[in-house]
Description:
The structure holds three protein chains of three kinds. By secondary structure, chain A is an all-alpha fold. Chain A has helices spanning about 5-35, 35-45, 65-95, 95-110, 115-135, 145-170, 175-185, 190-200, 200-215, 220-225, 240-250, 255-305; strands at about 55, 60.
Amino acid sequence: MTRSSDDRSFRIGTGAFAALVLLIVTGIAFELTRQSTLSITKFGLKFWTTKVWDPVSGDFGALPFIWGTLYSSVLALIVATPIALGIAIFISELSPRMLRQPLAYLTELLAAIPSIVYGLWGIFVLVPIVRKIEIAMGAKPALGVGMLAAALILAVMVIPFTSSVAREILKNVPATQREAAYALGATRWEAIKVAIGFGRTGIIGAVMLGFGRALGETMAVTMVIGNSPQISASLFKPQYTMAAVIANEFTEAADELYLHALIEIGLLLFIITVGVNLLSRLLIWSTKRRAVTAVIAPVVAEAAA
Amino acid sequence: MTANLRRRKIYSRIFETLCALAVIVALIPLAMILFYVIKEGFGALNLDFFTHMPKPVGESGGGMANAIAGTLILIGIAAAFAVPVGCLCGIHLSEYPATKFSSIVRFAADVLNGVPSIVVGIFAYGILVLPVKRFSAIAGGVALGLLMIPIVVRTTEELLRLVPGGLREGALALGATRGRAVFSVIVPAALPGILTGILVALARVAGETAPLLFTAFNNRFWSTSLTQPIASLTVQIFTYAISPYDDWHRQAWAGAFLLVMMILALSILARLAVRRLERMNRS
Amino acid sequence: MKLKPFALLLAVALAACQSNESKTANPTTINGAGATFPNPIYSKWFDEYQKSHPDVRINYQPIGSGGGIKQLTSQTVFFGATDGPMTDAQLKAAPGAVLHFPTVLGGVVPVYNVTGVTQPLRFSGAVLADIYLGKITKWNGAAIAALNPGVKLPGDDIAVVHRSDGSGTTYIFCDFLSKVSPDYKTKIGVATSVNWPAGVGAKGNEGVSGLVRQTPGAIGYVELIYALQNKMAYGSVQNKAGQFVTASLDSVTAAATGAAIPNDFRVSITNADGANAYPIASFTWLLLYDHPKDAARGKAMVDFLKWALTDGQKFAPSLGYAPLPQPVVAKEMQALGKIQ
């Protein structure tokens, strides 16, 4: 065998596996669409705006689940983002060198805990605490399960993702930025603000990454959210998310339309999470590139001088 | 010191303290979860737990032997599927990084990374359960493997790229074909990192529940068959957690403890492997 | 290369898994899924049956009656189990003729967790319907108080708990309430999965009992054994004859006595006549195809059912289920001949 045919078979051989990955992704999109045609054709766009989820009459609408997913994820972000950013800033800028590794490791430990263990802790520890809060705040009935418990658990689960990416971003901010700030007499915090300003697109990307994670979270949420398809701004009412309804009702959707409606929800979840994730990666990548350019530019200018 | 400077310094101190507080706030749930898992779980572990199957509903005792074996089998299948696919794909991406095909594949791997695990479960149900009309360990294992692939692809690609160019050029200069150069020289050099990536991916999928719900299903009996439903720690914990039986709750905590230990072991193994192989490579 | 021994080990392990199956006299695994209502007695039966028949393993997963029907129709399981009989539409959608076999009788009880109330509460169908319709929202509401004179009911809100999965227990409950409340029939209806106007969803009988147990002020509906095993308070329900009956072996059996059993065994016995009949009682059915593709498994299931309908019935009372009336058993033994 000649060298070039060996090389060619290497290229094709490994390329086949690369193509497999591509095939899998397109396969998922294709399968989800194919298995939800009944629902798509019957309800059309009305599916996204109907509140009713009635398996008896065959009337399905995804609005309560879309609401529940977005609401719980946004609430989780509101709680998680300041904490995650605080952690990132502390570890990369403020903490003594010795503490950096252990703290980083501990934060990553949060990400390593499986969703089901979060759910277990949620049912037996968090929900009773939330119930006590609800009783204290006069919410009736004080169930414990509901939007608040779900948002809190999601927040904890999202923190390590946002925090580790934000740390990466801050690490990549060129030292020149901070040095310039200090040279102008900035306090520590003001220098940090400059660094954050430089990396703000990336940090937004980090936040969106957390958002994407929260959107797709299934087990922990379904164990504490109450599984009730109602739309409510109240933190104490049980609600439902897209991932949770699929997990609960998939194996028993007895008629085709019901199953297709559930898979259509899965399709929407797929589209939303993929979109959010890609957007976040774009933002993160553009910041990293900017950081590299910012370092290279002064060096190049110096060399040219 | 001017009043302005003093104010700014105070602000700085305040925000720095808030950041430190953020760390503490995040560590509280971590501590609580670990505390409860260890307290409730360790206490509920006994020999029966590791050796017996579940008892009929309402009777106390029994164990999760089948679920433990099931989880190990499932991640074994996942690795058997994801490691070859992910590594070879990563190799291709690192060898031909600039082609249009590679950019598309990289994009696809990124997309796959963001797909929620329950959606992957739906996909696996559609292609592996429905056509053969049975739930099986293979369907569950492949679903987990699909989740592993993006992580393995990305780590393999990045680590292969880190290998110094001199190594490849040296191999090619000695007359090796590209394939030989990659497999005999470059991959072994990057092996510690690749192995870490695999172990990290394994740790992630060992804790997955949602995709198993309608692929591997569940099994009350001891089963190692690849074509039958199989129990798993995660699904068993879920079933027990939402039940009203106190004994089942205890077993759920024990299962959670075991699961967390397993995942911790995998991550520690990953770190050790890196250090060990790096030492070997250097000598 | 370092990978080779690892790969070899993996291959050997996988091979060992496979050969293990064939070595141990090839036990037949039969997969089934369905109702959580009879799960306590089914799990006891399958365990006991395996002791005397070690080569038959019946792997039953309680995913709800809706799940049982669905998986049986998709043929991903060999048998199904449900407490809500398949509708004509569902029967038509199945790829073969599905036969219903009643296995035990059970009752659905209203469980509750009301602070300060120690004696059993009385409910009527109308009151339960209104609670689940969201019309009665407090425990000391007039309608509940009227049925329970002398009981100090707190002013707490009622936390309604229902099923989040497709459930035969829901079917039985809704079947009864639709018979006694026209409002319930129109607004909610009868099915394994309905559109609940109020309340929180929990998975399985286990989930509902778990949630009611942990939530003060909650009310839920579960199979009797779940209330008994978890020492939960459950109320008596007013039957057609106007008596307040507590679910028990006698009252559930009374509901089945005198019911006309059709040839396909699909019959509802809720709101039965009889002074002592429990109004929310029901059969629970095992579902099998009449001509299963796997004849050996078919025979194994027939043998199991014959055992369950005779020897198995003795496990029922201790688990809170009522054994089947003799005429029903006789009729079923005949019907089992149809499976080949």
